[in-house]
Each structure stands twice: as structure tokens, then as C-alpha cells.
Design a protein that fits this description.
Blueprint lengths: L1 H10 L9 H14 L1 H39 L7 H50 L5 H44 L3 H34 L6 H11 L3 H23 L8 H33 L5 H15 L1
């Protein structure tokens, strides 16, 4: 009787038991270890133009900012001809601000495109090695080209949603302070709003990050469709998602603290920028690996991520090798 009862579970492809937050976190380095041959060219493709962009920022933006600061400091408010000096400097400052704004917009757009490529490459590399034993960079490159354009609108939606959430959260805190003044009740209410807002933000951040993973791995899902799919993945596993994201948040903050404590005083400004930029890149890659590990864990636990996805990956590899 016991054997008969277990047959439907085997036949139905029942998933494995759900993992804990620590197991998912430990699964991220394992994924990175399996995919290191694919990740190295992806990182090089990202780091070379990003380094050039960082160098361009150093030689173009920083001198412009320092020049503007010098012009501001050159103005003496106690000088009788203060208004004349302001009138003379205002056109130059306006021109510098326009140039700075245009340069920053170009840098932000290029940085966004480079980052989206890195995300697409890392997510697909980790997802593909989890499904198949042999994956070449050619297979990964074809996958990136097919899914990159879908990831961009998802990232735009995620950034807009994050900005809207933070704006509403801060406005709500401001309203409480203005309405109740600085009283015990306002402090208690602000504490509740702050703690609740942080917990909700951690949960939403997990949904948003899963939406990014969905956009990069599941073709045809991007934007709000990907975020809706991500909400389905996280639904029913909210506590696990919250624990995973809390641990990831602590690791990120610890990494940022360690980077800020690097002994870089007295070094060249460009060296300092690169010394802080590279660790942040590797920290971001680790966070992406955690998100992919959570995604894979859900697929395995629900029995949806084994044979079917392995067949799709094998099919992609065969098509790309033709």
C-alpha cells in the first residue's frame, strides 16, 4: 500500500523539499563555480567599456565639477561689485551646468546598457549551467542576444516602481512629522512606518529581482508580464524570500562597509575609483547569483524546472551548433 501511494508522486515529478535561506545563499557560490568559464568573458566584455566610461568620467566630469566649484568660491559676497560678478559668472556657470547635465545623461544611459548586458549574461550563464552540463559561450551569446532587449524594459519598470515606492514612503513619513509635530505618538508612528516600509521594501525588492531573472531566462516575458510572473514565483514563499533578501542585504551592506574602509588615502583619484568599482561589480554578481539560486530552488521545489527546461536548453545548444 505504501508503495502504491508513492507512485503518483514519482509519476507526477514531485519537486524536492524547499531549501532554507542559508542553503540558497550557499548555492550562489556553487553556481558561480560551475559557470566561471562563461562568466569570465561576460565580465571582460562588461569591464572593458565600463572602465573606459569610468576613465572618461574621471577626465571629463570631475574637472568640470572642480571648475564650477572654483568659480563659486571666487565670488566674494562682501565685495561691492558682488552683483556684477554674479552677472558675469552666471552665463559661464549655466553653460557648465548644461554640459555637465548632458555628459551625465550620456554616461547614465551607457552605464545602464552595460549593466543590463552584465545582468543578462550573468543570469543566463548561471541558469544554463544549472540545466545542462556542457554550455559554450556561443550558446550563451545567442541567449543574451535573444533576451537582452526584454530585460531593458523590465529594468525601467523596476527603477520606476522603486522610485515611486521610496517617494511615497518618504512623503508619508514627512506628513506624519508635519501633522503630529515632534511628539511621542509621531515618533512611535514613524518607527512603525519605517520598520514596515523596510520589510515591505525587502520583499518587493525580491519580487523585482525575480522579475529581472524571469526576463533574462524566460523568453517573451518582460516588463509588467515578467513582474507578474515573479510575483507568482514568490507567492506562497514570502517568508523564505524575505529571509533570503535580508541575508543578501546584510552581505551587501557588509561589503560596502569593507569597501569604504579600504586604505586608499593618498592614492590617485582614478585608482581609488577603480579600487571601489571592481569589488562592487563582484558583489553585484554574487547578488545576482543569489537571485538565480532562489529562482532555481522554486522551480525545483515545484517540479517545473528539471526535464522540461533541460530539454529546452539542450535544444538551444543543438540549434546554436548547427
Amino acid at each position: 500500500m505504501k508503495e502504491e501511494e508513492s507512485l503518483p508522486l514519482i509519476a507526477g515529478g514531485g519537486g524536492s523539499p524547499p531549501s532554507s535561506a542559508l542553503e540558497i545563499l550557499c548555492g550562489a557560490p556553487k553556481l558561480l563555480g560551475k559557470a566561471w568559464k562563461l562568466l569570465i568573458p561576460v565580465l571582460l566584455i562588461y569591464l572593458i567599456p565600463s572602465s573606459l566610461l569610468l576613465f572618461g568620467t574621471y577626465i571629463a566630469v570631475l574637472p568640470l565639477i572642480s571648475d564650477m566649484v572654483e568659480k563659486f568660491l571666487a565670488v566674494k559676497t562682501d565685495d561691492p561689485s558682488f552683483s556684477d560678478m554674479v552677472d558675469a559668472l552666471l552665463p559661464k556657470l549655466t553653460e557648465d551646468l548644461r554640459g555637465l547635465a548632458a555628459t551625465e545623461v550620456v554616461i547614465m544611459l551607457m552605464s545602464f546598457l552595460f549593466s543590463s548586458f552584465l545582468l543578462t549574461g550573468v543570469i543566463n550563464a548561471l541558469a544554463m549551467v544549472a540545466k545542462a552540463d556542457k554550455v559554450t559561450f556561443k550558446d550563451l551569446f545567442y541567449k543574451i542576444m535573444r533576451t537582452w532587449k526584454g530585460l531593458v524594459p523590465t529594468l525601467v519598470y523596476v527603477n520606476l516602481l522603486a522610485f515611486a515606492y521610496l517617494t511615497i514612503w518618504l512623503l508619508l513619513l514627512g506628513v506624519v512629522f508635519f501633522v503630529f509635530d515632534l511628539s511621542l505618538s509621531s515618533i512611535a508612528l514613524c518607527t512603525v512606518i519605517s520598520v514596515s516600509g523596510i520589510l515591505l521594501l525587502l520583499y518587493l525588492n525580491m519580487v523585482w529581482s525575480q522579475g529581472v531573472v524571469v526576463s533574462a531566462t524566460e523568453e517573451g516575458r518582460y516588463g509588467l508580464t515578467a513582474l507578474g510572473r515573479a510575483a507568482e514565483l514568490v507567492q506562497g514563499r514570502r517568508r523564505l524570500a524575505l529571509r533570503v533578501n535580508c541575508l543578501k542585504f546584510l552581505i551587501v551592506q557588509g561589503g560596502n562597509l569593507a569597501i569604504s574602509l579600504l586604505p586608499l588615502e593618498g592614492m590617485n583619484g582614478l585608482i581609488i575609483m577603480f579600487a571601489r568599482f571592481l569589488p562592487l561589480v563582484f558583489l553585484s554578481v554574487f547578488c545576482v547569483a543569489v537571485d538565480v539560486a532562489f529562482y532555481n530552488e522554486h522551480r525545483n521545489a515545484t517540479g517545473k524546472g528539471s526535464c522540461e527546461e533541460l530539454g529546452e536548453t539542450t535544444k538551444d545548444v543543438k540549434l546554436n551548433n548547427v
